[in-house]
UniProtKB/TrEMBL annotation:
Keywords: Signal. Residues 1-19 form the signal peptide. This is Pilus assembly protein. The keyword Signal applies. The keyword Signal applies. InterPro entries: Ig-like_fold, PapD-like_sf. It comes from Pseudomonas arsenicoxydans.
Amino acid sequence: MKHLLALFGFYLFAQLAHAAPSINIGTVYDYLDGDKSTYLKRVFNGGDSTAFVKVNILEILYEADGTSREVPLKTQADGNARDGLMASPARLIVPANGMQGTRLLYMGERDRERYFRVRFVPVVPEKEDEFAVSSEDREDYKKSLSAGVTVLAGYGAVFFVRPKDMRFDSAIENDAGKYRIRNNGNTVVVIDEFKDCSIKNEQDCQPTTKHHILAGRTFQFEKQAGREYRFTLVEGESSKNIDVKG
């Protein structure tokens, strides 16, 4: 009897928990090239309830020691607009099993590369959230969600705004025991699908990783005998597969 009650409780919880939105923002790293000022970001809702999503943006500032901090955007000198990245619209109503898009618009100088954290946060709409829904619709939505078991999971993306005059210059040093790539350009370089595997046993691999080399920074790894390192070096629209043996 206890076993049946436990199964019933689990089934009921699963059914209630399922009655909620479930968003997906696609890629978590996005890049705005120097000749573009807008970027369309799509938000998908795979759940069975409407998703009310707020878009929040902070600027990421990287320190010389490699650490970073996130700060609110400032207003431009003329006071007419924010200095940095804006989302239009900043409030999305995404239907169940549907999709909506927001356009990320950059406003400001393009003499250097800048970085932003774009957060997509599902919420239960309140009057002050400025969603275009009536009070009755808001109350109905709250009642439709499963109180106490619904988890509204948000996601964050990192947005790279490249300078107007992009310049790629990756300097590679392949020493006996170490491999280095220094970014001498003025915009980010991507190390994609980095794999560290045994030459003799293809199943003996470390987890695949992705790395970003900011301008003026260096990516490096120690080479070990009997290991092979494979990755794709991505410089904007250009990419090159690289294979390094220890």
